[in-house]
From TrEMBL:
This is Pimeloyl-ACP methyl ester carboxylesterase. Belongs to the AB hydrolase superfamily. FUS2 hydrolase family. The lineage of its organism: Bacteria, Bacillati, Actinomycetota, Actinomycetes, Kitasatosporales. The keyword Cell cycle does not apply. InterPro entries: AB_hydrolase_1 (IPR000073), AB_hydrolase_fold (IPR029058), FrsA_esterase (IPR050261). Keywords: Hydrolase. Residues 63-165 form the AB hydrolase-1 domain. It comes from Streptomyces africanus.
Length: 283
């Protein structure tokens, strides 16, 4: 897997006015296609959020939240927009569709090369002038933010992984057995493409990417928060506990009572606590 630079903006709409320069934060929503280091076009949206309303500080003082959605999500899905609105109370927000999802190009590799998509989004956030970046990922996106922080040191200032697996090839729950059918069977990939609007790559991983639990020890000293519901139907609580054990005293675990899986299960109160945590830890 390539770990080179993230790439550049390939095409954009609603661009800021011409005197806006690289490194100067903008105060309007932008929609853009980013180009990853392996040439995939990634649909991305920037919302200045709190930057617009807090005139007591310069925009660069505010953190930017880069949100990595779960498998079958996309930048325009209602649950992704809800998360973006929640974080916009605390800073600017970048959302994007992983490869194979929504309007982005390519095909999903279910957490492998998606690290390059996140790297492109983080680089764009920096180019827009934000000195502090927090990555927040859900489910598959949770595994991606962990691996990104390990493979791209110093690109992010705080990492939050929500409802992430600790290890690959887990089939211990019915939802994960269904997901493996979608990913590994030709007929499953057809269902995913036309029923879930998610295009999945047909090739197996080669080599098998660094697993989330292997990535976690490499993240320090970047602040790390692991969030998981004790009613998660995809990954039981041994997954977050494995991640927390791998992080040792360099990470923090929130095991949320009654919470299910990923974005749909993350209530506004929890998203608010995550927003406050990122603001407090991102420097």
């Amino acid at each position: 897997m390539s770990t080179g630079p993230a790439g550049h903006v390939a095409r954009s709409t609603d661009r800021p006015h011409s005197e806006t320069t690289r490194g100067t934060p903008v105060r309007t929503q932008l929609r853009t296609f980013l180009r990853t280091s392996d040439g995939v076009a990634i649909d991305a949206v920037y919302d200045p959020g709190a930057v617009v309303y807090d005139t007591s500080r310069t925009p660069a003082d505010h953190p930017v939240f880069v949100v990595a959605h779960g498998f079958t999500g996309a930048v325009d899905r209602p649950h992704v927009r809800r998360v973006a609105r929640a974080f916009a109370r605390y800073g600017a927000v970048v959302t994007f569709s992983f490869r194979g999802h929504g309007a982005s190009g390519g095909r999903s590799t279910v957490g492998d090369r998606e690290v390059l998509d996140l790297a492109a989004a983080v680089e764009w956030a920096r180019e827009l002038g934000h000195a502090r970046v927090g990555t927040v990922g859900f489910s598959m996106g949770g595994s991606v933010v962990l691996r990104h922080a390990a493979l791209h040191p110093r690109q992010t200032d705080a990492v939050v992984s929500v409802s992430a697996p600790a290890r690959w090839y887990y089939r211990g729950t019915a939802p994960m057995r269904r997901l493996h059918w979608l990913v590994t069977r030709p007929e499953g990939r057809v269902v995913s493409r036309y029923g879930l609007r998610t295009r999945i790559h047909h090739r197996d991983w080669d080599p098998v990417p660094l697993s989330p639990v292997e990535a976690v020890p490499r993240i320090a000293p970047t602040p790390l928060l692991i969030v998981h519901g004790d009613a998660d139907g995809y990954f039981p609580v041994d997954h977050p506990r494995m991640l927390a054990a791998a992080a040792a005293d360099q990470g923090e675990l929130w095991l949320e009572p009654g919470m299910g899986h990923a974005e749909n299960a993350a209530g506004d109160e929890l998203l608010g606590r995550i927003g406050e945590w990122v603001v407090g830890r991102a420097g």
